[in-house]
Amino acid sequence: EKGGYDYFMLKEIAEQPKAVADTLLGRIDGSGSLTLDEVRIPPGVLREIDKVVIVACGTAFHAGMIAKYAIEHWTRLPCEVELASEFRYRDPILDAQTLVIAISQSGETMDTLMALRHAREQGSKVLAICNTNGSTIPRESDAVLYTHAGPEVAVASTKAFLTQLVACYLVALYLGQVRGTKWGDEIRAVIRDLSSIAGAVERVLGTMEPVRELARTLASKKTVLFLGRHVGYPVALEGALKLKELAYMHAEGFAAGELKHGPIALIEEDLPVVVVVPSPRGRSVLHDKIVSNIQEIRARGARTIVIAEEGDEAVVPYADHLVRIPATPTLLQPLVATVPLQVFACELATARGNEVDQPRNLAKSVTVE
Ligand code: F6R
């Protein structure tokens, strides 16, 4: 049932191109518009929304952080992302004009369920993004957009995360389409790029051997840091979470701009630091800033592991290890940038002799608060 793979996690990492394609299937029509029939919140109601709040836990929370960039950019609606476990305890400001999006692979996460119940009590509409048909979270929501990742068995989430991202982009683009936005042309272009993104994920998977080799050489390290900016920041957090869960190593993700506000003090000789580099096209200011971050940490002895777009030559002199990913629109980069981090964590865990599919102390769905 592991389809020839040693672990479910490896199988599920390999299934990502299909999971991504399946999640897009039937949701983009021939003219390049979105048809999200499952979102049964009438367009009229969606036009009245004045704020989006996303609630989720763990990996799903990282998908939500990325969704915020997409939703705010394409719809100009303010969007907050909150850890579901913190949400209702701070008396959040919610009303009928708030769209709450609850993201959950299992659909049974108690923290997320309690957050959405609280939101509905305040009169907000709740849209679930969920991978498990008929589970509690979609049943208690006003609408649902299912991710089509198929069953995810490994405790550490991989293909569910990529499909959560796809669903979040679809919701962001759909909100943009329904509400009308000045980004109409960009939205059409992104929908086109989304349609071919599964192929880009496939290409990344085909180039992972050097990442595996590198991971094996780091098995005795105590700490790995992850840096990113813009949508690369949640990707860095996700890379660190995977490493904690699987390799039981100290791993932290930072927004690269925060380095000088503290974390740079952690940099020491031979410390592995993974840097997710934004596209040099798109928001090129961020690209140049992160290149100077890489220079700074390398000058202090860090071993830099740089994840950068094909054709990005500026990073080459400062990368001890360079992992190439295909060029994508800025907001879609997490779909390709996360994959090497999943492979990295999985391989490090194996090298350390850990149980990949069943990390210690963790359960696949967390049904207690
Ligand atoms: C990380 C992981 C967890 C889950 C979190 C939410 O690899 O698996 O962080 O993402 O417990 O679970 P769901 O998505 O089922 O609500």
UniProtKB/TrEMBL annotation:
<comment type="function">
    <text>Catalyzes the first step in hexosamine metabolism, converting fructose-6P into glucosamine-6P using glutamine as a nitrogen source.</text>
</comment>
<dbReference type="GO" id="GO:0006047">
    <property type="term" value="P:UDP-N-acetylglucosamine metabolic process"/>
</dbReference>
<dbReference type="GO" id="GO:0097367">
    <property type="term" value="F:carbohydrate derivative binding"/>
</dbReference>
<dbReference type="GO" id="GO:0006487">
    <property type="term" value="P:protein N-linked glycosylation"/>
</dbReference>
<keyword id="KW-0963">Cytoplasm</keyword>
<dbReference type="GO" id="GO:0006002">
    <property type="term" value="P:fructose 6-phosphate metabolic process"/>
</dbReference>
<feature type="active site" description="For Fru-6P isomerization activity">
    <location>
        <position position="364"/>
    </location>
</feature>
<keyword id="KW-0677">Repeat</keyword>
<comment type="subunit">
    <text>Homodimer.</text>
</comment>
<dbReference type="GO" id="GO:0004360">
    <property type="term" value="F:glutamine-fructose-6-phosphate transaminase (isomerizing) activity"/>
</dbReference>
<keyword id="KW-0808">Transferase</keyword>
<feature type="domain" description="SIS">
    <location>
        <begin position="41"/>
        <end position="181"/>
    </location>
</feature>
<keyword id="KW-0032">Aminotransferase</keyword>
<feature type="domain" description="SIS">
    <location>
        <begin position="214"/>
        <end position="359"/>
    </location>
</feature>
<dbReference type="GO" id="GO:0005829">
    <property type="term" value="C:cytosol"/>
</dbReference>
<protein>
    <recommendedName>
        <fullName>Glutamine--fructose-6-phosphate aminotransferase [isomerizing]</fullName>
        <ecNumber>2.6.1.16</ecNumber>
    </recommendedName>
</protein>
<dbReference type="GO" id="GO:0005975">
    <property type="term" value="P:carbohydrate metabolic process"/>
</dbReference>
<keyword id="KW-0315">Glutamine amidotransferase</keyword>
